[in-house]
């Protein structure tokens, strides 16, 4: 049964520094960062600063009807298809090398939609970077710091989100 890993701002800072090092060590160079909003906003901006990338954009994707992994095999969950609710709009990424950044990669549905949108905006190459990836994820980002199976609570999330996670876990743990 999964638990909840709670991260502080200091934890996130350390994860971002490690992720920047991993991207830097790859030798790949990027023209812009696209942050998957909300979770990718902080790591995306920190990464852009660390890698001296001046163009930072945001895109918001949601999965309606997402059912969390409580009580399901290996913590995985099922969800409706992801849809863009805040698009990149008329951004021209023609021939750009784009780094898409999110906090965690779980099912991969949201990140897949974002990558499609970035290519649709003209990007020549797209890579994905996340702080963490779930151990049961069907896909892996190009760059990540660590794998986790627990639910993750980051400091930019609300207290209400933490209470909802705790409540779902309590229900899942009932016999």
Can you tell me the CATH class? Alpha Beta
As laid out across the biggest beta sheet, the strand order is 4-3-2-5-6-7
**Tally of domains:** 1
Largest sheet: 6 strands, mixed
What's the helix-strand series?
EHEHEEEHEEEH
Q: What is the percent of helical residues?
A: 25-40%
β-strand number: 8
Structural class: alpha/beta
* Average pLDDT for all residues: 87
State the shape. Answer: globular
| CATH architecture heading | 3-Layer(aba) Sandwich
Termini separation: 12 Å
CATH topology: Rossmann fold
- Radius of gyration from the CA trace? 16 Å
Percentage of residues in DSSP E strands: 25-35%
Low-confidence parts:
66-76
| Number of H/I helices | 4
Domain Phosphoribosyltransferase: 9-145
Keywords: Glycosyltransferase, Transferase
InterPro entries: PRTase-like (IPR029057), PRTase_dom (IPR000836)
GO molecular function: glycosyltransferase activity
Give your account of this protein's structure.
This is Phosphoribosyltransferase. Keywords: Glycosyltransferase, Transferase. GO terms for molecular function: glycosyltransferase activity. The protein has 175 residues and is α/β, with parallel strands linked by helices. It has a single domain, classed as Rossmann fold, CATH 3.40.50.2020. It has helices spanning 9-26, 41-50, 109-120, 159-173, and strands spanning 4-6, 32-37, 55-63, 82-86, 97-105, 125-134, 143-148, 151-153. It has a 6-stranded mixed β-sheet, sandwiched between helices. The longest helix is centred in the first third of the chain and has 18 residues, at 9-26. It is globular. Mean pLDDT is 87; it is low at 66-76.
